[in-house]
Amino acid sequence: MTDIRLSIRIDDEEDLAAALAASEKTGVPVQAETPPPSGGLQEAFEPVTAILIGAGVVAAAKMILDWWERRKGGLVIDLRKDVTDPLYRDRDVPFGFIVTFPADGGKVTVDVKDLPDSAEKWISEVITAGFKTVKDTVDAATKALGGDKVTAEEPAAG
Predict the structure, then answer these.
(1) Which of 8, 23, 85, 127 is most buried, most CB within 10 Å of its CB?
(2) Helix/strand number for the chain, H first, E second
(3) Quick one: pLDDT at residue 88?
(4) pLDDT for the residue 92
(5) Residues contacting residue 22 through CB under 8 Å, at least 6 positions apart
(6) Which residues lie closer than 8 Å to 87 by C-beta, 6 or more apart?
(7) pTM of the entire structure?
């Protein structure tokens, strides 16, 4: 016979009673264990973990999309007569450059567009928000817990 084990989180007595009833019906043994108290830390870390995973996925996707766009090359605007495609991307033109061929056959212009990297700015904002100064952290803790429960000590000079 296959050894079946089932692990579920029991939140209250009603859950425990339901698990014991299911055990009696199915014949699958239930073993109740009391987990060590977490002090609510697990609940506090779960949103942080989700945010970090989400940020990692967004950063990876942004990196791939940027690579794809850069791979296509720069923009060519061809205003000359008898041109089949007046607007196209060319790998021979570096990304961020715009080459314009005028309609009158005059001087070709090359413009450079400095495209800001939004992912870099976004990641910087996330890091800055997460790692504020120690004084900001102490102030927030004092406000949340009360001044008598928070003490700030200066690090020893080393």
Answers:
(1) 23
(2) 4, 4
(3) 92
(4) 92
(5) 28, 30
(6) 75, 76, 77, 78
(7) 0.43
